[in-house]
Automatic annotation (TrEMBL):
InterPro entries the UniProt entry points to: HTH-type_LysR_regulators (IPR050950), LysR_HTH_N (IPR000847), LysR_subst-bd (IPR005119), WH-like_DNA-bd_sf (IPR036388), WH_DNA-bd_sf (IPR036390)
Native organism taxonomy: Bacteria, Pseudomonadati, Pseudomonadota, Alphaproteobacteria, Hyphomicrobiales
Domain of life according to the entry: Bacteria
UniProt keyword list: DNA-binding, Transcription, Transcription regulation
All copies of domain HTH lysR-type, residue ranges: 30-87
Pfam families tied to this protein: HTH_1, LysR_substrate
Similarity remark: Belongs to the LysR transcriptional regulatory family.
GO terms for MF: DNA binding; DNA-binding transcription factor activity
One Gene Ontology cellular component annotation held by this UniProt entry: cytosol
SUPFAM superfamilies documented for this protein: Periplasmic binding protein-like II (SSF53850), Winged helix' DNA-binding domain (SSF46785)
Name this polypeptide is given: DNA-binding transcriptional LysR family regulator
Stored PROSITE patterns: HTH_LYSR
Amino acid sequence: MRLNEDADEQLFPGEGGSDLQGIGLLRSGLKLSHLRMIVAIEEHKQVSAAADALNISQPAASRMLTEMETILKAQLCERVSRGVALTAFGRAFARRARTILLELREVDRELSALKSGTGGSVFLGAVTAPAISLAVPAIQQVSAAYPGIEVNVRVETSNVLARELLAARQDFIIARVPDDLNPRLFNVTEIGIEKACLIVRKGHPLAEKPIVGLADLPHFDWVFQPAGTLLRRRIEELFIAGGVPLPATVVNTSSILLTTAIVCGSNAIAPVARDMAVFIADVGAQAGEISILNTDFEIDIKPYSLISVKGRALPPSAKLLYDLILQRSRMLSPD
C-alpha cells in the first residue's frame, strides 16, 4: 500500500541523503525503551496494557509515546473506541522497531553462544500433531549431533503461535496462518495434514461400541479447544452438517494435560490430534488411561506448514532444525 511506503520514506529516508537519519534520531533522544513501547502498543492495542507488559506506569508510557511523536515529528497513535490504533507512521515505526529489537536479540544469542562454546539456541512453536510426529524426532537428532544447542519448544494453537512468530518470540513455527493475518508476511511450506480423533476414559459408555456416530455424542460433556480454533470449528461443522445438536456442556482449554485429566475423571469426550491420542494411550500411566473412539466419520484438519517471517533470516541453529523437520516430513509423506 502506497500510504505505508510513504510513511516509511518520511520516517526513515534512504541513506543516500546527506544526513544519516538514524544517527539524527538517536541524537534526538530515541531510545531502546521507545522501540519496546511502540511494539508493545502494536501488540496490545492499549497504552495501559502496553505499560503493564513493560512493567511501567501508564503515565510513564503516555510520556514515552509523546516523546516518540516529538522525536519523529509524526502522530503514531489515534484513539479508537476500545483503545488506540497505530497510524500509518506508527505501523511503519513499529515494523522497523521490531526488526531492530530482533537483531539485538540475535546479537545477544550469537555472542552468548561464542562465549559459552555452545551451539546457540532455537525457539520453535508447534501445534500438537507435528510437535509429536516431526519436532520431537528432529530435536533428538539435533541434540545427538550438536549437544550444545538449546531448543525451546512451545505447543500452542496457530492463532497464538503466528502472533508470537511476528513478535520474534519464535524462530519458526509448525502451524497454520490464521485467517485474520496477512499471509504475505510469511514464508509457508506445507508439510502435512493433521488427523484428529475423539478420546474418552477407559470404561466410558461409548468405549466398547464398535462404531460411534455423531448422534451418539451430544449427550455427553465435551472438552474443546478455545472457540475459533481449527479443531473446534471442524467438530462443530461435522455436527451441523449431520443435523446433530451441538454439545450443551463444554469446557474450553488449550492444555492437553488438563484435557486428559478431565476426560480420565469423567464421561467427557475430547477431540485431539490422533498422534497425541496414540501417544497418551500408549503411555499406560494413569494419565494415559484413555480410549480412542472408532467413529464412522473422519476428522481431517487443514494442512499445517513450516512457517517463518519473510525477510527474517533463520539463525544457523534454527535453520538446522528447520531443515531436519522438513526432511522428516518428506519421509513421512505418502507421495
